[in-house]
Batch of 2 targets.
Target 1
Amino acid sequence: VQLVESGGGLVMPGGSLTLSCVASGLTFSTYDMSWYRHAPGKERELVAAIDPAGRNTNYADSVKGRFTISRDNAKNTVYLRMNSLKPEDTAVYYCFARRLSFSLWGQGTQVTVSA
């Protein structure tokens, strides 16, 4: 059972990235999925969340209008499309799966926004 993120990297301010998180070993379509981020010296922050069917999403105020969470249950994958990136978006981004009392974290992927 694991979550594997990819798609992080170095991008200039104003640029875009798409993160992916592939789940294995669980019934992906029954899990709420989220993206969190953790920047040095800051608390871990919930960035975006999506329900199992992909009908309902939630976003942190800091990313509303810039980030989009989506999922493809046929591919066991959740995405985070990040547009208009700012230096303050720099962090390690983590995928998180939750269903009832079970939860699982990915290993994280670094996103650095810098000129």
Target 2
Amino acid sequence: EVQVAESGGGSVQAGGSLRLSCTVSGLIFADADVGWVRQAPGGECDLVASFTSDGVIRYGDSVKGRVTISRDNAENTAYLQMTSLKPEDTAVYYCATDLFLLGLERSPGTCDTDFGYWGQGTQVTVSS
């Protein structure tokens, strides 16, 4: 059974920083894409960052320059370092792995958990 577990969310003031962690078990992590997707209340599911198994990194337009994704294949863990946080970054942040990017391509704006494996999400709240 594949399990995806996020940690590191919380509440910060605008301009602050947070680091999210995602630990994956039950698959060969080094062979899997991994990424972070967020959804604000009533909003769409947006890609924050992704890191493919072959080393390609991609960031969502709204966070470019403010977030950094990394992965440690030996620890089966991915990280999302977020800086200069804004109130509009407030959302539930999901870690996803395996085929989640395919799901986002097929259904833009939708967190389609039928594709890949998803964590339960961690809340990030940024106050002004």
